[in-house]
Design a protein that fits this description.
heterotrimer, A alpha+beta (88), B alpha+beta (502), C alpha/beta (415), B: 502 residues, alpha+beta, Uridine Diphospho-n-acetylenolpyruvylglucosamine Reductase, domain 2, Uridine Diphospho-n-acetylenolpyruvylglucosamine Reductase, domain 3, Alpha-Beta Plaits, 5 domains, eight-stranded antiparallel beta sheet, 17 helices, 19 strands, 20% strand, globular, C: 415 residues, alpha/beta, Fumarate Reductase Iron-sulfur Protein, Chain B, domain 2, Rossmann fold, 3 domains, four-stranded parallel beta sheet, 47% helix, binds flavin-adenine dinucleotide
Chain lengths: 88, 502, 415
């Protein structure tokens, strides 16, 4: 859907337990176990568009931060492959 | 609660010097310039407010303000970004707060002699953004890179995360202009010469006027290194089954002798456990991962590539497990952002609470790290046992030596503190623990502070212990330069300098 | 999500831990404020458009939160701080750049909220009879005319004239889809809604006008006049229902945000509506080939990321895609993360109460454009930003266009 619809802003009820304190509702996206936020600080009802926006903005910001310091990044995975090929 | 007011004649004179728009005396102006992010006795906020704030725009104004303060015997406290973690910018004796944020200009970029001259209110990230199109960077890179300012970097003599390659603040600041406590203006470097990096003329005054926490004057202009922007970056995170494995590996990476090596970071077991609370990189890590190291390199592509390959060889030989590009890159890129996050806080029953961050920042030799670590955790655990308002957030150690990293480490234990619950008992327990943490550092041949300064309540009591006879010299210097004790009084036990005189 | 959820979301922070000293309406921001106070790193300072100009810690997002803590501790009253809270464009940079949002906001479903605090403080001030003179006058006129006095204090912007921009376009009243033209564009820059309407028509979208549109209410929420805002909301929703409207197209991101953030909590059945940004819709039409851009535009442009789009909604890709689709146009991009620290200075009616501050902020924005090689035109996608940017642009010999004006021209329309 192109626009905003209120009913689409609720987090999906289904989730996977990742650890004692962490759950996951989307692939590779982690969230605090809501039981930890009962007594002192309560969770906000963050609309789903906002939830996903934060994740996207985080990635964009990290890439920006890297570019601030250097033009390119050298991959460790590539180096490991290279060393294996060289029989090192 | 009443804030003691300043003599109106003094305020009038401040207005005459700085202009009406640059002098503030309203309550919100004062209460918002009381604290810094270090643990703060929230229940006694009003004891730390200034009586007037000035926002000068020139060296002349700063000089005139300091002269006035010296004459009227009113304390003066310099404040830059107010991100300092050692209370330096907290006006504990009230007085006039000199906020340098309106002095944020770049005065000169000299590509030939590779310097940039700035006012003290500029932020490093903003400065580097301006330098980027010219192919340069100013690589003083604390975790507070996006928010601390050059004046505060000099005032604290700060630590940079990539100092192995580029040096710390003291290595990147070539010379600066400073208004002395009497209002006189001097320029200091290694010797003379605004753009001279190494000199043997006279005393090395640059070092004296760095890291004094605003007790010896106010920096109004600084000439900095213009560093060629790196072509390439390499960052690698490695996992280990125990702290001691990671500790040994850290030493080996640091001993590599690679010129591009910018830093090695060691995460202890409590830090990894803590990251598993909410850090997307480490939540899914297998259970055997108990400790982590990180290596960062910068430079031209060819040298970084060759160096990085050598790091991978060392890693393989010492049993390090590479965490993969995604974690390695993402975690390094977020190095500024993952410290003072209040929701990291947990009560003993595991409930999330908003805690503020204490960052212990001792400098410890590599050989001493395991012993210091055990004692520090014991102190913080004990605190948590007694008060359900403290939380152990684990330890980091960062290579501390500029250009030849690895012999000693900025070692932090991060402590979460639920400040909303402060009362005198909790505050006193905190100050005691803080002092004990610092004592351990000194007993192991270290320094209480690698980067923030050691003038916080608690640890400051141990300054004479750490410095020995050096502390007596410090007092003499203070008395000579600041005869009336107006520059940031009450810091570093320097009131003693005047008691002895009397 | 229901209206109830939204209300709860806004009132997340009232809990048993407080000292009980905070006024109603501020108490619900206690945790948000303390979330900032206890981190205190101030990453927001260097992205805040106001702080970059005033350099005064009173105007920092950090202070906006610390004041709440100080109020709780009995150190400050609303009288001490009401004027400080004028210094904010509600651009959202501070909330976004805060590590408490960017790095853990999603994980905890608890992100930094500064705009909410500013809004609540401004409301408290008004409730306590502390008014900013021009905001008060602006609110009175809006209440009186139904739309904001964007043409000056004495030129009426009544609902009788709010459809004038559409003259000759042959738009029906009501229908399933309506266009919601904001006050600024409808009265002051009608070329924008005209451009949008022409493009939508070209793309085969059927839509009408509201029978009697009032201001969305956003600026009233933003400046503390919530009673007036509520009137606007109720009126507009009623107008939609009466005309069978199900879908609202907003050319202005301010309106879009007001509608998605405030309307749902005031209406139990808001889920029957879909709210669409014209930008998304038109980007779609171009992508699908339903609107074709054939007229060459011979200029070198850069794009101003409007704060509401970029920092508050995370929408920065569509406008870039659109600009790259215009034939002949040379587009010099400045990435959207760099632009987190840019702003026109217009937001949340700062230009009404502190025009000199808006001018300083927009001058800096134009200075940034002047640093780019060969750029002769600045393109924005928000009518409010275009007011100060055009003023400052004129002073520095730079043209300022709305993206829809440009797209309409490229599609062969005259607006
Ligand atoms: C999230 C976070 C991460 C941090 N990470 C690091 C880190 O990695 N490395 C590190 O070194 N620090 C770190 N710090 C601490 C802090 O950022 C540094 O100490 C920094 O140098 C302080 O700069 P500031 O501009 O905020 O100074 P302030 O806090 O305003 O002042 C610091 C001291 O300098 C004095 N001062 C300020 N301006 C002047 C001037 N013009 N002339 C003379 N004295 C002056 C003040 O009186 C005070 O004593 C961190 C802080 C935070 C909040």
């Amino acid at each position: 859907m192109l626009g905003f619809r209120l009913s689409a802003q609720r987090p999906p009820a289904e989730h996977r337990r990742i650890s004692d304190v962490v759950i996951s509702r989307y692939e590779h996206v982690y969230e605090v176990d809501p039981r930890l936020m009962q007594e002192h600080v309560r969770q906000q009802s963050l609309p789903e568009w906002d939830f996903h926006r934060i994740i996207e903005n985080r990635v964009e910001h990290l890439v920006w931060m890297q570019q601030h310091f250097a033009d390119s990044v050298i991959s460790g995975d590539d180096l490991i492959r290279e060393l294996e090929q060289e029989g090192d | 609660m009443a804030v003691p007011t300043l003599d109106t004649a003094v305020v009038d004179e401040l207005v005459a010097i700085c202009g009406e728009e640059n002098v503030l005396t309203g309550r919100s102006a004062l209460f918002n310039r009381a604290r810094v992010p270090a643990p703060f006795p929230l229940h006694r906020w009003e004891q730390f407010t200034p009586q007037a704030v000035v926002l000068p725009t020139s060296t002349e104004q700063v000089s005139a303000v300091v002269k006035l303060a010296n004459r009227a015997r009113v304390p003066v406290v310099p404040r830059a970004g107010a991100t300092g973690l050692s209370d330096g910018a907290v006006p504990i004796r009230h007085g006039i707060l000199v906020d340098v944020k309106r002095m944020d200009k770049i005065l000169e970029i000299d590509v030939d002699d590779r310097t940039v001259t700035v006012q003290p209110g500029i932020n490093m990230m903003k400065l580097s953004q301006r330098l980027q199109p010219l192919g340069f960077i100013y690589p003083d890179d604390p975790a507070s890179y996006p928010c601390s300012l050059v004046g505060g970097r000099i005032g604290t003599s700060g630590f940079s995360l990539i100092s192995g390659r580029f040096g710390h603040t003291r290595d990147l600041v070539i010379s600066f202009e400073i208004v002395l406590p009497t209002g006189d203006v001097i320029r200091v470097g290694d010797g003379g010469g605004r753009k001279i990096r190494k000199s043997s003329s006279g005393y090395q005054l640059k070092h004296l006027f760095m890291g004094h926490q605003g007790t010896l004057g106010i920096v109004t202009e600084a000439t900095l290194e213009l560093v060629t922007r790196p072509e390439a970056e390499f960052s690698a995170f490695f996992s280990y089954p125990s702290y001691l494995d990671a500790w040994r590996a850290t030493g080996e990476f640091a001993r590599s002798g690679l010129a591009t090596l910018a830093g090695v970071v060691l995460f202890d077991e409590q830090k990894v456990a803590y990251l598993r609370r909410d850090d997307e990189a480490w939540i899914p890590a297998p259970d055997w991962v108990k400790s982590i190291t990180a290596v960062a390199m910068y430079g031209q592509k060819d040298e970084v590539r060759a160096g990085a390959k050598q790091i991978m060889r060392i890693a393989k030989a010492n049993g390090s497990t590479y965490a993969g590009d995604e974690v390695s890159q993402g975690d390094w890129w977020s190095r500024h952002d993952r410290y003072a996050t209040p929701l990291h806080g947990r009560t003993r029953s595991g409930q999330a609470v908003l805690m503020s961050w204490h960052c212990e920042d001792a400098a410890i030799n590599h050989s001493q790290l395991p012993a210091v670590r055990e004692k520090w955790h014991w102190i913080v655990d004990d605190l948590r046992r007694r008060f359900d308002t403290f939380d152990d957030w684990g330890m980091f150690s960062y290579t501390n030596g500029a250009f030849r990293p690895g012999g000693d480490y900025l070692t932090e234990i991060d402590v979460g503190i639920w400040e909303q619950r402060y009362d005198e008992e909790m505050w006193a327990a905190w100050v005691d623990a803080k002092r004990e943490i610092a004592r351990v550092a000194i007993e192991h041949g270290g320094s209480m502070s690698s980067c923030h300064g050691s003038c916080r309540e608690g640890e400051v009591d141990l300054l004479p212990l750490e410095l020995g006879g050096g502390f007596d010299v410090m007092k003499k210097v203070k008395r000579v330069l600041d005869p009336n004790n107006v520059m940031n009084p009450g810091k570093y036990l320097l009131d003693q300098a005047y008691e002895e005189e009397a | 999500m229901s209206a109830e959820d939204v209300r709860k979301g806004r009132e997340q922070a009232t809990n048993g831990d407080g000292d009980g000293n905070l006024p109603v309406g501020i108490d619900e921001w206690r945790d948000a404020a303390y979330n900032c106070f206890s981190s205190g790193h101030k990453f927001c300072r260097e992205v805040c458009p106001v702080m970059q100009v005033t350099h005064d810690e009173r105007h920092s997002p950090t202070a906006f939160h610390a004041n709440v803590v100080a109020m709780e501790k009995g150190h400050l009253d609303i009288e001490d701080v009401a004027e400080d809270y004028v210094h904010c464009t509600m651009c959202g940079a501070c909330e976004l750049r805060c590590p408490n949002t960017l790095f853990t906001g999603d994980f905890y479903r608890f992100r930094q909220r500064t705009i909410g605090v500013v809004r609540a403080m401004r409301k408290l001030a008004v409730d306590r009879g502390i008014h900013q003179p021009n905001w008060k006058r602006w609110a009175e006129r809006t209440d009186q005319w139904g739309n904001e006095p964007v043409l000056g204090w004495n030129i009426e912007t009544s609902d009788a004239k709010v459809r004038d921009w559409a003259v000759g376009l042959d738009l029906p009243t009501g229908g399933e889809t309506v266009i919601f033209a904001d006050c600024e564009a409808a009265f002051k820059r009608p070329s924008i809604p005209r451009a949008v309407a022409l493009l939508l028509q070209a793309g085969g979208i059927e839509f009408g006008l509201m029978s009697q549109q009032w201001c969305c209410g956003g600026p009233m929420f933003e400046t503390g006049y919530h009673d007036i805002a509520h009137k606007m909301v109720e009126h507009n929703i009623l107008d939609w229902r009466r005309n069978g409207t199900k879908r609202i197209i907003c050319p202005d991101p301010h309106d879009y945000i007001t509608i998605i953030e405030h309307y749902p909590e005031l209406d139990e059945n808001f889920d029957e509506f879909e709210v669409v940004l014209a930008l998304d819709l038109i980007a779609d039409l171009i992508r699908d080939g339903k609107v074709t851009l054939t007229n060459e535009i011979d200029s070198t442009v850069t794009y101003h990321d409007p704060c509401r789009l970029n920092k508050r909604l995370g929408k920065w890709q569509a406008p870039r895609e659109i600009l790259r689709a215009i034939p002949g146009l040379k587009f010099v991009d400045v990435d959207h993360v760099t632009q987190w620290s840019y702003c026109s200075g217009a937001g949340s009616n700062l230009f009404v109460e502190k025009p000199e501050l808006t001018a300083k902020i927009s001058r800096r924005r134009i200075d940034k454009v002047k640093e780019l090689d060969g750029v002769d035109t600045l393109v924005s996608a928000c009518p409010w930003s275009e007011r100060p940017l055009t003023e400052q642009g004129e002073a520095q010999g730079l043209e300022v266009y709305d993206i829809f004006e440009l797209v309409a021209e490229a599609a062969g329309f005259e607006v």
